[in-house]
Structures are given as structure tokens and as C-alpha cells.
Amino acid sequence: MRFSANALLFDSDETLVSSMKSVFRCWAQWADTHGITVEEIIAVEPHGRPAAAIVADLLPADQVARALALLEQAEVDDAAAGGVAPIPGAKELLASLPADRWAVVTSGTRRVAEARLAAAGVHAAHVITVDDVTRHKPDPEPFLTAARRLGVAPAECVAFEDSPAGLAAARAAGMTTVALTTTHKAADLDADVVVPDLAAVSARTSDTGVHVTITVCEGNAEAQNTDERNGTGLRQ
């Protein structure tokens, strides 16, 4: 499958950076410190949501600020200690893109996002975090903010995400969506295209935009099926 756009927007965790093990370690330790079970965390549907919103669902209001500070420091330290790695294909894809044609759009804080990206060897000129917006995924504001930062119309952007909340945000922004099955089954991801990871994606740039190729491997039913139903407004 091939299409063209003017900018590519990427979630960070489990889209560019393999961080799930780090997240589990930090949250499990944090939960134990605060007398919270992992099951209680899972019950508030944490993936793709800002940590502040999750913690606010779990603790009294007067404990949230300190608890968040402890969690953020733990996540920064874990990343610096080698707790994260790049998603397959991420560094190669990003290396083919000019800095002004892509951005990171994450629900994490700036400290955590920058720590994980740096530890994974991902160097982004434009990073939109929870600190830059007032409404968070699944609201479209984070993706719209990234498009505005790059000076590109939302309809001319492709968003790469792994979570239902992130995909909903990108769709609401009017963007084409590519889902990675790094954290969810393909059946749970409403996207124009579904791929295992970024190794299936390549790009080249020209004066007319970013030309993206998604490789449909033999037996990759998710990518084949979404390709057949793709009805985006981007240049095919």
C-alpha cells in the first residue's frame, strides 16, 4: 500500500518506544507503595491516558501531586537505566524523514517522554506532551496541536498509534490512522491500516510530500483487510 501526506505524527509509548516493561515495573512499584493492586490500575483503563488522570482515579485529591512526582521520577530513572528500546523499524523510518515533517504526540509528561525517547535513540525536534494541551486523547487537541506546530493541515497528516484512545483522537482530528498491534489485538483497533510494528513502514520525501509505503506481508490479514477498505482523503 502506498500513499502520500505532508506530515507523520507518532505516539511515543509502544509506537516509537518499547516501554511496556518499564511502565509495568514503575507502576507496580508505585502501586505497592500506595497500597493499590495492579488489578485496580487495570480497572481504570490506563493505556493511552495521562498519568495524572489515572492517579486521580486511584487516590484522594490531596495525595495526587506527590504520588505523581514519585511516579514520574521512577519512570525517568528506569528509562535512563536502559529500561526502554526502540520499536522495530522506528529509527530507520524516522531517519528517512526531515525534522519538520514529523512529530511525537504523547499523553506522557515532557520529562518522561524526553527520557524515554532519548534512551531509545529517538531524537525529535517536535514533541507534543500532556503539558502542552488542556484536553487529552481521545480528544483531538494533541494531534491538532502537532499539525499546527508543523504548519500542516490535519487532513494531510498520518497518525501512528497503538491505543484505541489515541486512534480515536487522530480520527477526530480528521487524520489518516495507522495502528500498531504492539499492545492491542487488531480487532480492537479502529484504523485505516493495521501493522505489527514500524518495520512494515517506509517513507521517502519529495517536493510534493512524504510518500509512505506499507508492506503487506503474505498472511498479514490485518493490513490486507484495512487496505481494501481504506477510504482516506490522502493522495493514494
Could you give a quick summary of the protein structure above?
With 236 residues, this protein is an alpha/beta fold.
What is the CA–CA distance across the termini? 9 Å
Whole-angstrom Rg: 17 Å
Number of domains: 2
* Uncertain stretches of 5 or more adjacent residues: 217-236
Task: Write a structural description.
This protein is of the alpha/beta class. The chain has two domains: 162 residues, Rossmann fold; 61 residues. The chain is built from nine helices and eleven strands. A six-stranded parallel beta sheet has the order 6-5-2-7-8-9, sandwiched between helices. The radius of gyration is 17 Å and the shape is globular. The protein starts with a strand and ends in a 7-residue tail after the last helix. The C terminus is likely disordered.
Labels describing this entry:
236 residues; alpha/beta; Rossmann fold; 6-stranded parallel β-sheet; 3-stranded antiparallel β-sheet; 11 strands; 39% helix
Layout: helices, strands, pairs:
Layout: E1 2-5, E2 7-10, E3 17-18, H1 20-33, H2 38-43, H3 51-58, H4 61-80, E4 85-86, H5 90-95, E5 102-105, H6 110-119, E6 127-128, H7 141-150, E7 157-161, H8 164-172, E8 176-180, E9 193-195, E10 201-206, E11 209-214, H9 221-229
Parallel strand pairs: 2-5, 2-7, 5-6, 7-8, 8-9
Antiparallel strand pairs: 1-11, 3-4, 10-11
Helix pairs in contact: 1-4, 3-4, 4-6
